[in-house]
Design brief:
The protein is of the alpha/beta class. It has three domains: 85 residues, Arc Repressor Mutant, subunit A (Orthogonal Bundle); 102 residues, D-Maltodextrin-Binding Protein, domain 2 (3-Layer(aba) Sandwich); 107 residues, 3-Layer(aba) Sandwich (D-Maltodextrin-Binding Protein, domain 2), CATH 3.40.190. The protein contains eleven helices and 13 strands.
């Protein structure tokens, strides 16, 4: 491995022609220059310098190495400048893992906006469900995990991770368009939906856990008629009149699904959307951009209609 600091001596010798002048330019002793140039020749395994009277001149190999040195030092200067810009937040890179609806409603619009406002930043996005994102974060596979309040959330005070709030997301009731409750602007969870056929995900998933916990707190056990893996399938079943669903707002935000209505739930269930980073890592500028995207998702309570 060639020592970059010795390349500086070789370049200085090429410019000043004498060991003494090179030493003076670099603020070292002539003996130090001679010793380091000898070591550089050993590293390179070819003669780099030859004496011409009182001066030194570079051999052909020495000139080749000096040309490479100029490129190397230019790249080092660019690296130092980029590091300074990183410290200022002007440029950077981040790998982001998020659950699917977080990508659609938070990460994608945030990254799209940052491409305009922070063109020096580069983001790589991967889908990572809450049960996997924490481990991906710890192993360095991702730099920011967009996750939610669930059993998979790291415990408070975990020393190697930091948690940053993004938004509080309501869960809304999704009903067939001709359902008797479709005209009601706001629903009660137990009173209005306790005796319905429910469409939910399988036990152990984040969606199931958040909805079932809210139902239990309201004093009933939902009658699950259909079990699905994704919200699109749930919406199709609802539109077909086969049951109701209570889903996170991010699941339906921005969609247009015919034959289906969405109603807010009075004092209804909520979940917290969070960004996790390794301790000491800075989640900006993505965190602020996701919070701004979240502001556009959170709509006032009241009558919400899809496909009307």
């Amino acid at each position: 491995m060639i020592d970059v600091r010795r390349l500086q001596l070789l370049r200085a010798l090429d410019e000043h022609r004498t060991v003494a002048a090179a030493a003076e330019a670099l603020g070292v002793t002539p003996s130090a220059v001679s010793q380091q140039l000898t070591a550089l020749a050993k590293e390179s395994e070819v003669p780099l310098v030859e004496r011409n009277g009182r001066r030194f001149v570079l051999t052909g190999a020495g000139r080749v190495l000096v040309e490479h040195a100029r490129v190397i030092f230019a790249e080092l200067e660019r690296a130092r400048a980029d590091l300074a810009r990183c410290a200022e937040g002007t440029i950077g890179t981040a790998r982001v893992g998020s659950f699917a609806t977080g990508i659609s409603n938070l990460v994608a619009p945030a990254v799209a906006g940052l491409r305009r406002t922070r063109p020096g930043w580069r983001f790589s996005v991967v889908q990572a469900e809450p049960e996997h994102s924490t481990e991906l974060l710890r192993t360095g596979a991702i730099d920011i995990a967009v996750t939610m309040s669930s059993a998979h959330l790291p415990a408070t005070g975990t020393p190697d991770l930091q948690i940053h709030p993004v938004m509080v997301e309501p869960l809304d009731a999704v009903l067939p368009y001709e359902h008797p409750l479709a005209a009601k602007p706001e629903l009660e969870l137990a009173e209005d939906l306790g005796d319905a056929d429910w469409i939910m995900s399988a036990p152990g998933t984040a969606w199931f856990d958040s909805v079932s916990a809210a139902c239990h707190q309201a004093g009933f056990q939902p009658r699950v008629a259909h079990t699905v893996d994704d919200f699109g399938a749930a919406f199709s079943l609802v539109a077909a009149g086969l049951g109701i669903a209570v889903v996170p707002r991010l699941a339906w935000n921005g969609l247009t699904v015919p034959l289906m209505v969405v109603r807010s739930i009075r004092r209804g269930p909520q979940r917290h959307i969070l960004a996790a980073t390794r301790t000491g890592a800075d989640p900006e500028p993505l965190l602020t951009a996701m919070r701004q995207a979240a502001d556009r998702v959170t709509v006032p309570s009241g009558q919400l209609i899809l496909g009307a």
